[in-house]
Amino acid sequence: MSDKEKIVETEKEVETKTDSTTEIKEETKKNSDSLNKEDSQLDEKTKTLFVNQDMYLASGIYIGMSRKLKIMMPFIYKIRSDGLCIFDLKKIEKRIQLLVKWLSRYQPNEILIVSRKKNGHKAVATVGKAIGAKTVYGRFMPGMLSNPAYKGYIEPKILIACDPYGDKQAIEEAYKIKIPVVCLCDTYNFPRLVDFVIPLNNKGRKSIALFYYILAKELLKENKTINGDAEFKYTPEDFEMTAEDTKL
Fold first, then answer.
1. Domain count, the chain
2. What is the per-residue burial (b if ≥16 Cβ within 10 Å, else e) of 217-239?
3. Phi and psi dihedrals of 112, rounded to 5?
4. Which residues does residue 63 pair with via DSSP β-bridges, in sequence order?
5. Which residues 6+ apart lie within 8 Å of 84 measured at CB?
6. Which residues of 45-82 are buried (b: 16+ CB within 10 A; e: fewer)?
7. CA 218 remoteness from chain centre
8. Is residue 220 a contact partner of residue 128, using CB atoms and an 8 Å limit?
9. CB burial class (10 A; 0-12, 13-18, 19+) of residue 102?
10. 8 Å CB contact between 196 and 59
């Protein structure tokens, strides 16, 4: 079975059992009360899988942009009267659940996680440390996956990227060597050459940090490395880029 075929099998298996951008930051702060009331997916009856609702709300992980592409519409819960798109939180969690099951089939050092955008640097570095994955944050040098003669050449079996445009060099090389690509995608991102989309706000530092916090925690639990949340030694803040980090 090829790596890409594992996506379908995993889906069947699971079925059976720096700050946000200015626009998002201002919108979230100004409308936090209305978001809680307006988005019924986040009311007190909603059962979340990985963290409590307050953490999702604080991170803005489910807040998309007013720009949207048709290919991302299936992941959108609603479009507000002001045009701002809201991701379906249940679908975000479902995709993360599928990804965790899928990644558990790989050895940690077979996983490569990349982020060109600065808001993802600390998150990628920390998740790599937590689960033992390979990481590249900052510029992805051409040939790292496709040129065996390059001194920094690596041979992962799966790639996780933070942005389909910012990480296009890594994604194109992964496609060239025929390994599956997972990518975080906002409402306006076109997932070119991406095999598996994780729909969420992929711009804000809190959102990216929360995603990788959940991914690391749940993967370690799935692999029986830890027995529960209490044994996970990291917090979402450990994954979050700060103003001080941007100076490094």
1. 1
2. bbbbbeeeeeeeeeebebebebb
3. -115, 130
4. 86
5. 27, 63, 64, 65, 66
6. eeeeebbebebbbbbbbbbbbeebeeebeebbbeebee
7. 13
8. no
9. buried
10. no
Tens digits of residue pLDDT in 187-241: 999 999 999 999 999 999 999 999 999 999 999 999 999 999 999 999 999 999 9
Q: Which region holds residue 68: left if phi is over 0, alpha if psi is between -120 and 50, else beta?
A: beta
> Residue 90, exposed/middle/buried by CB under 10 A (0-12, 13-18, 19+)?
middle
Q: What is the pLDDT of residues 132-175, one digit of tens each?
A: 999 999 999 999 999 999 999 999 999 999 999 999 999 999 99
* Token reading at 26: 């201002």
Question: Which residue bears the tokens 């070119």?
Answer: 192
The bridge status of strand 111-115 relative to strand 158-161 is parallel
Which backbone phi and psi does 137 adopt, to 5 degrees?
A: -125, 145
The single residue listed with the structure tokens 């939180």 is 89
Residue position matching structure tokens 């933070």: 162
Residue 146 sits in which domain range? 5-247
Nearest to 105, CA basis, from 197, 23, 223: 223
d(CA 197, CA 194): 7
Pairing of strands 76-79, 85-87: antiparallel
Return the CATH number at 141: 3.40.50.10490
Task: Measure Cα distances from 236 to 56, 134, 218, 219 in Å.
Answer: 11, 20, 13, 15
Tokens standing for residue 247: 């100076």
Tokens 């991406």 found at = 194
* pTM as predicted: 0.84
